[in-house]
Amino acid sequence: MRFCVLGSGSKGNATFVESGQTRLLIDAGFSGKEIERRLAEIGVGAETLSAILITHEHGDHIKGAAILSRRFRLPVFVNNQTLAAAGPVLDNLQQCHAFVTGETFVFQDFQIHP
Question: Mean pLDDT over residues 5-26, rounded?
Answer without folding.
Answer: 98
